[in-house]
Amino acid sequence: MSVDRSAAPRMARWHALAARACIVVASACMAFDARPDDGSALAQAAFDRPAGTDLTTVSRMELRDKGRGARLRELVGYRLKKGRGESVNLLRFLDPQDIAGTGLLSLDKADGANEQWLYLPELDRVRRIGGDRKGGRFVGSDLYYEDLQQRLPARDRHRLLGTETIAGVPCEVLESVPVEAADSVYLKRVSWIDRQTLLAMRIDYFEHDAATPSKRWELLAKKLIQRHWTVTDSRMTDLGTGHETRLIVDTAVYDRKLPAKLFTPQALADETLESEYRP
What we know:
Blueprint: H1 7-34, H2 39-47, E1 54-64, E2 70-83, E3 86-95, E4 103-108, E5 114-120, E6 125-129, E7 156-166, E8 169-178, E9 188-194, E10 200-206, E11 215-225, E12 228-238, E13 244-254, H3 265-269, H4 272-275
């Protein structure tokens, strides 16, 4: 009877491959099982939430002092993901006349660094926003320049504080503290994350006192647009003064193949280079 002497080596190789496959599958299962208890994993999942390659919006901004009527502004926004964690954003005010043309360009780099430029039509010049102004209010709103930047999860230490229901939505409560204190105007942020959509339902910002928030962002409405959950109504409140900034998205269009040339200081200063892309 003949013996196939190659069978033993083949079986050994097969068992080795099978063992490695089991290790990979087991590791994946352990990573998945660990995610609900891992603040960093939740922060990364929320950051990686599918949101298209690019997004164009037309919105209304309402500024409201406590007990007074709202001041209305209209603006258009563009966002482009460039890969490897890098993204660019352009905001332009359209109305009223005293602020029309004012724009902000934000470049969020893959290493976590941020650059911003502000265009003021009355001066007809583009001015770079220094890091010492990240706590400055954007055109008199309750949004700081830092709030309009993308923040990589690795720049913070994350910790799950528990669960809580916000507006009927079960949420994970996530605390995020800057790794480097000088890297943020905030001492910490506490976010209520909807695990189903990975959208934040609420964010409390702590500036001066780690026990008392100074600002609060709230999701008021969301909508599924082109298969992407989109915040369509939100409010930022200064908890000290009661002043509110509400942002209502009237139009949102994803994946229009926006060109990189739209996100340059030149396009920021020249409205004609941007206006053709308005929806």
